[in-house]
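Quick one, tokens below:
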């Protein structure tokens, strides 16, 4: 494994949640962090608060990009594939 990777075992939230998923297919997940309470507590210095805010903002942007990719995937597959 590369440094910074997390090994997880994903399970469906609902019964039958994996119906229609092709066996052997891959998925993408995003690990989130929230430092909002720590930042707003006032116990940190300004540099550390800023650094944690950057971490949270980066996680938000990654989550947004992941959702955009999920929305664009059917268009890329069905319309832009050229088949």
């Amino acid at each position: 494994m590369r440094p910074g990777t997390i090994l997880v075992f994903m399970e469906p939230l609902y019964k039958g949640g994996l119906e229609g998923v092709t066996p052997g297919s891959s998925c993408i997940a995003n690990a989130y962090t929230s430092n909002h309470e720590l930042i707003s507590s006032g116990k940190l210095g300004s540099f550390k608060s800023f650094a944690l805010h950057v971490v949270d903002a980066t996680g938000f942007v990654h989550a947004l990009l992941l959702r955009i990719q999920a929305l664009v995937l059917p268009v890329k597959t069905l319309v832009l594939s050229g088949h």
